[in-house]
Specification:
It contains 24 helices and 18 strands. By secondary structure, it is α/β, with parallel strands linked by helices. It binds adenosine-5'-diphosphate, magnesium ion (MG) and zinc ion. The site of adenosine-5'-diphosphate has 13 residues, from loops. Adenosine-5'-diphosphate binds next to loops. It catalyses: Couples ATP hydrolysis with the unwinding of duplex DNA by translocating in the 3'-5' direction.
Length: 619
Amino acid sequence: ETYVPKYVEVNYIEGSDDTNWSKRDFSWTKKLEANNKRVFGNHSFRPNQREIINATMSGNDVFVLMPTGGGKSLTYQLPALICSGITLVISPLVSLIQDQIMHLLQANIPAAYLSANMEWPEQQEILRELCSENCSYKLLYVTPEKVARSDALLRQLENLHARELLDRIVIDEAHCVSQWGHDFRPDYQGLGILKQKFPKVPVLALTATATASVKEDVVQALGLVNCVIFRQSFNRSNLRFSVIPKTKKCMEDIHNFIKDNHYDECGIIYCLSRMDCEKVAEKLQEYGHKAAFYHGSMDPELRASVQKQWSKDEINIICATVAFGMGINKPDVRFVIHHSLPKSIEGYHQECGRAGRDGQISSCVLYYSYGDYIRVKHMLSNGAVEQSSFASGYPRAGATNSGRTLETNTENLLRMVSYCENDVDCRRFLQLVHFGEKFDSSNCRKTCDNCLNTQTLVDKDVSEIAQQLVGLVKSVRQQFSASHILDVYKGSNSQIVKRNKHDTLSLHGAGKHLAKGEASRVLRHLVVEEILVEDVKKSDLYGSVSSVLKVNEKKAGNLLAGRQTIILRFPSASKAPKSFRNDATPAKGSLTSSKQTPVPVEAPASAQPQTVVDKELSA
Ligand code: ADP
Ligand code: MG
Ligand code: ZN
């Protein structure tokens, strides 16, 4: 029997070859299964674990995308156990490493780690053990800066390699390699040296968060060759997603939501600033909730104690910056509320992912106002936004405030805004598209606010708009981002648009008359259908990255020749859309609209699957 976590729905493999990785007649299969039971105490493998292990054991470079909690560690710990040499694991966070080592030692698997803040004698002892005749370690964990900066370590690795004892190199949290990801760490970029030095040693790169562009970046930077890719659906069917307009009485809304849906249950409220955390916690305490705050400038001891009280259910609600997250494995988090706009869809998905690890229905509610967008944008450009999890003890080398990645950050933020402002498409669909995954909205079964929404929708033929947008992408010589294209299309006269206006011919302003959000939906649809592709552009001069739209000639042909009709569904104009730009308290009585309250925990189970959103008439 296979144990399938409840939230894993689709389980597909995208490999660069046709090998059947789930075969059970590899020479190591028996040993693998026996050790999985005996040493790790698992009854079976989770989705993709067996396949990943077989691919890496066969000597391939492997790239794994698996949601947090999916069981990535086993895919290298088990091979490490049954191979004769040592597995090198690069992991970003000392606390995570220590936690892993503790578990390994409990299972009697010899393991050690090296990090820069260890005493030198202690480091030396480990290095000595590595070069000893019969080194006992099965796994050696190191932080990335060790690889980038320690010659002593590299020499030991060369030595191990020469003795044919370097079995495998594992890059955990591999998305940190990419500036495009939400957790860029400069030291990860130096890891390419490992493949250069040890080209024949298989590399296993693991991450829970990677868009197509991050994946490309990682594969390139690490120098992976013919790598086999395992990707698991990122859909979390037990989570309920809603975006709610944030008003002045947002705190009252949050209180009511928790009281009505998750009374005395455990949850996280993500706030933008440290001050917000404290204010939100205080307000909730006034309402009678057991709440506390958690952020980077707290005394470490106090912080640890808050986290402990929370894990023991003495505190229900943690009001935190994104610093609160990685390594938190509480299975019964029933809600994740965003008190303000997350900085990227990736980050948002990951933060929401901390809810409902046990597979039980849980809520994800985002309170959105356009004002918060301006606020986050401002904070990003000042480098004032608290960074995620890695904050504990690790300098982030100014990934956000260097200006280098400001463009990337702004682009990521804009996508988050467009997610929030979209009141038509399935939230799951919108999130998963971002991970390069096609999700059929009818599988949402009304578990997000947009699918639950009963407002009338009308079909609209947007083929002409689509043709114009594709034309526009071509006329700017495929050098610009989606937001730039939209600006030109809507007739913006900003400096950058003006400077490039001569290229855009008659299409500048061609979309002036369209309703708000219409053009961006068509554009996104074109990206989803791969008629347009989003590419990462690297500028050699400064090493900065940005997103650039290109035309996929193969798929654009039918559309441009008028042989393809694209029909999208829009809210009928008769009903007023929910107003996000209005930060003021709505008039009394207007609050009963279904769009003003989150999806209830008990969503209709027998909901009819939604009909297909768009149709295409291909030649
Ligand atoms: P990830 O790194 O993907 O976030 P972990 O490797 O930390 O996930 O695993 C999450 C949890 O799942 C751990 O508690 C681990 O013991 C458990 N686990 C992993 N594989 C299995 C399995 N095959 N059967 C049962 N539990 C498993
Ligand atoms: Mg992990
Ligand atoms: Zn939906």
